[in-house]
Specification:
It is a single chain. Helix content is about 25%, strand content about 25%. It has about 325 residues and is an alpha/beta fold. The protein has 2 domains: about 170 residues, 3-Layer(aba) Sandwich (Rossmann fold), CATH 3.40.50.620; about 120 residues, Rossmann fold (3-Layer(aba) Sandwich), CATH 3.40.50. The strands form 4 sheets. It has a 7-stranded parallel β-sheet with strand order 7-10-6-1-4-5-11, with helices on both faces. The chain has a 5-stranded parallel β-sheet with strand order 13-12-14-15-16. Strands 2-3 form a two-stranded antiparallel sheet. Bound molecules: flavin-adenine dinucleotide (FAD). Flavin-adenine dinucleotide (FAD) binds next to helix 5, helix 6 and helix 8. The site of flavin-adenine dinucleotide (FAD) has 25 residues, from helix 5, helix 6 and helix 8.
Amino acid sequence: MSVLIFIDQAEGHVKKASLEAITYGAAIAAQLNTTAEGVVLGTTHEDLAGLGKYGVKKIHHVNNEALNNFDAQVFTKVIAQAVEASSATIVVFSNNVDGKAIAPRLSARLKAGLVAGAVALPDTSNGFVVKKNVFSGKAFANISVTTAIKIISLSPNAYKTVATEGNAEVVPLNAVVDTGKIKITAVHKVSGEISLAEADVVVSGGRGLKGPENWGMIEELAKLLHAATACSRPVADIGWRPHHEHVGQTGLAIAPNLYIAIGISGAIQHLAGVNRSKIIVVINKDPEAPFFKAADYGIVGDIFEVVPKIIEAVKQLK
Ligand SMILES: Cc1cc2nc3c(=O)[nH]c(=O)nc-3n(C[C@H](O)[C@H](O)[C@H](O)COP(=O)(O)OP(=O)(O)OC[C@H]3O[C@@H](n4cnc5c(N)ncnc54)[C@H](O)[C@@H]3O)c2cc1C
């Protein structure tokens, strides 16, 4: 028995969300008096042994460059082999794009119960019960998992990464790697931008900006704060901003440490994608804007006066 954590990489670097998943998986292992093991797919630039400081004792490395490009079907089969190699009864993913694609497939393959979007450690006092967000973060559900193998995907930012000391034993895993049914022929990356899904700070604009010509101040503030830029859905629909920046129920769901909403009303569909942010700052001229109810800090004012002042203040602080 062990807890197996899928350690997700981007271009050979472990993603921040995976460090949270490792810390979370290690805490479950400690709770159940067992060991935490990890699985890494593809070539890597990371010091895998060094990931031991997050609590993982052993890492199964499938060092096969065929796994450098993500393919959910291929990855699922390889992770199933890692589950067998580690005799894992609990498998932990981050509930990010990759985790959302693999965990349900693995669940079907292993006939394992899955809790997607966990926000706390399981309660093992009477069975195995995992708390998760439901209804776009409006409520919690406690899900009891009764299958022999249990899969949990952890909501990004729901569990704090803790680094202590220690090294993991890194062992090669000679897994069978299928030829994928999908062939990636080219990758076109958006360069020079901070990835919205992974960003610590996000500066986001809504229809209150009045037009794409006013986005300069959003970009300037984002640059100063090393932030990614985002937008509400109508802004992407009208074509003021690209669709990959649209956050919300029908867009990307994000969980940065700081989300700054500028000229966005805070409709429920928008909140569904951003309400897991740690700190929400809202700037809106309407004191009745619904976003203020979800805000940690709010400024009632005209964005065209307030935002340039914030930019100046940040410049001075720097
Ligand atoms: C099925 C469905 C799914 C949806 N999915 C999403 C989604 O994923 N994401 C999403 O964002 N929306 C989504 N929507 C749309 C959502 O309901 C709202 O219409 C949308 O979020 C509103 O965008 P907004 O806040 O930018 O614009 P508005 O509602 O027009 O709000 C603009 C805000 O800017 C403020 N403002 C205007 N001028 C200034 C100024 N000078 N200074 C300060 N403040 C100013 C106003 O007071 C207002 O609060 C969805 C809707 C449906 C029906």
